[in-house]
Structures are given as C-alpha cells and as structure tokens.
Write a structure and sequence with these properties.
- The protein has no helices and three strands.
- It is mainly β.
- The protein has one domain (11-41).
- It is globular.
C-alpha cells in the first residue's frame, strides 16, 4: 500500500504524456507529473 508521508519503494510502470505512472507490489498506482520527474529519467 502506498503510504502518504512515508517513503515508498515504487517502480516505473509506464511513461505517458502527463508523466510517469509508478506502482507498488500490490498493484497500486500513482502519477508522477513530468514537472517532478528528474532530468536523468527524461
């Protein structure tokens, strides 16, 4: 489960126009908007 206010280990699931979708092992997803994606990943 993704916990707000906690460090979470997530993997990149897919790259879309609005940003990266990140997920955990329980199939929960969250969008990381492009403005917060580090330049190393672009």
């Amino acid at each position: 489960m993704i916990q707000i206010g906690q460090f979470n280990t997530l993997e990149i699931l897919r790259d879309t126009e609005p940003g990266l979708f990140l997920g955990d092992t329980e199939d929960n997803e969250v969008l990381l908007p492009n403005r917060y994606v580090p330049s190393l990943l672009i």
